[in-house]
């Protein structure tokens, strides 16, 4: 008999946010620290642990321009590139191995080096690992904000995904994407139950003296945005804000003295589907735990179901540009299962057929599943 479960049929799940410092731009050392945090979260009975924006291995808190000293720019860019994570590399393998060993979901913010042959573009990405250690999802920030465009490429709409897991339907957005109403609307319509929000810290844009300065008292726009998204989506939001210890930055790093780290002091929170914090924002280093009960989603959806009775598809429709062109979100929902990064290409190579043929078979299979058929 068909059924529609919430949080994978569990009464509640326990989540953890890693508000801890990476070893800045040191991929191996940061990965080792992440593995320790995964073990600690699992010891606290967490079903999922999430990390802040580009935690592995560091957000670019410095400024560049055409007047940058050449030698400094070259050194920094090489180090930034070498600290980036690629699908299938040693760091990726270590994270998956830790997730499997401790039977816990992991969502990691990374500087991602594109695994496409011929490309060295770096993206601001989220990697999703399941309890078996499988990298089942990857999404790239659609629009790097302001000076971030100097460092990262732009993601695509194919990455706007929500994944079915044994702890519920999981999705995520990165920092300024929470200011993109249509993207948030797409996540709502895709039926998120757990939303991972990644930030480089909790900052104010009005207080000064710098453009991004420490939040003077819960004025960070991200706090209000994730609370609003939680209520609109009827989902739990895990808002992961970065904490960086200056002692974790190599003294030889050329920008250390001029980095804007003043706001990278934490501020992580866990928000209930009603938009009320279960864990209030706080500063300092450590894991932040929360229990998320399924009944909260069920109760809120009975009041306002923004992806259902409150969406009014007869009056408004949201479209997204997918691999088959423009689709309404109702069509996009056909793809309810995840395809691991590079999986289609590997299948094409294994069976010596074209990638277009593999995509066609995968799409037919997804369409059959959405109609309750076997293909």
Broad shape: globular
Number of strands: 16
How many separate helices? 9
Number of domain modules? 2
Question: Could you spell the SSE succession in H and E letters?
Answer: EHEHHEEEEEHEEEHEEEEHEEHHH
Distance between the termini: 20 Å
Q: What value does the average pLDDT take?
A: 90
Strand content: 15-25%
Rg, rounded, reads: 20 Å
Helix content: 25-40%
Write the CATH homologous superfamily of the largest domain: Carbon-nitrogen hydrolase
CATH class descriptor name of the largest domain = Alpha Beta
Q: Summary?
A:
α1 links the parallel β1 (12-19) and β2 (48-50). This protein has helices spanning 27-43, 70-82, 90-102, 181-189, 221-233, 294-303, 329-332, 343-351, 355-370; strands at residues 12-19, 48-50, 105-113, 122-129, 135-140, 163-165, 168-174, 194-199, 203-204, 213-214, 236-241, 266-271, 277-283, 286-293, 319-322, 325-328. The chain has 375 residues and is α/β, with parallel strands linked by helices.
């Amino acid at each position: 008999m068909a059924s529609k479960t919430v949080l994978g049929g569990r009464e509640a799940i326990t989540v953890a946010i890693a508000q801890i410092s990476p070893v800045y731009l040191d991929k191996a050392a940061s990965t080792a620290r992440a593995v320790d945090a995964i073990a600690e979260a699992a010891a606290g009975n967490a079903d999922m642990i999430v990390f802040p924006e580009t935690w592995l291995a560091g957000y670019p808190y410095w400024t560049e321009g055409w007047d940058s000293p050449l030698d400094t720019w070259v050194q920094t860019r090489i180090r930034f590139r070498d600290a980036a994570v690629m699908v299938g590399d040693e760091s990726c393998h270590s994270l998956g191995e830790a997730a499997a060993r401790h039977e816990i979901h992991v969502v990691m913010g990374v500087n991602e080096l594109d695994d496409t042959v011929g490309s060295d573009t770096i993206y601001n990405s989220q990697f999703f690992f399941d309890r078996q250690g499988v990298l089942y999802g990857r999404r790239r920030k659609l629009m790097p904000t302001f000076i971030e465009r100097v460092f990262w490429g732009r993601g695509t709409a194919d990455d706007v995904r929500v994944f079915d897991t044994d702890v519920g339907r999981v999705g995520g957005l990165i920092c300024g994407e929470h200011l993109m109403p249509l993207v948030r609307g797409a996540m709502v319509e895709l039926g998120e139950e757990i939303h991972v929000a990644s930030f480089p810290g909790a900052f104010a844009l009005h207080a000064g003296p710098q453009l991004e300065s420490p939040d003077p008292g819960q004025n960070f726009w991200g706090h209000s945005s994730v609370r609003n998204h939680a209520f609109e989506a009827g989902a739990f939001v895990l808002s992961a804000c970065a904490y960086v210890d200056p002692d974790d930055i190599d003294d030889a790093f050329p920008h250390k003295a001029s980095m804007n780290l003043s706001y990278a002091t934490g501020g992580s929170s866990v928000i209930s589907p009603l938009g009320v914090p279960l864990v209030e924002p706080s500063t300092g280093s450590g894991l932040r735990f929360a229990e998320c009960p399924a009944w909260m989603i069920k109760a809120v959806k009975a009041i306002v179901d923004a992806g259902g009775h409150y969406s009014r598809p007869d009056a408004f429709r949201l479209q997204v540009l997918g691999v088959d062109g423009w689709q309404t979100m109702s069509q996009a929902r056909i793809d309810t299962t995840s395809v691991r990064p590079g999986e289609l290409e590997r299948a094409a190579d294994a069976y010596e057929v074209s990638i277009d043929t593999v995509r066609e078979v995968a799409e037919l299979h997804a369409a059959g599943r959405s109609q309750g058929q076997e293909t």
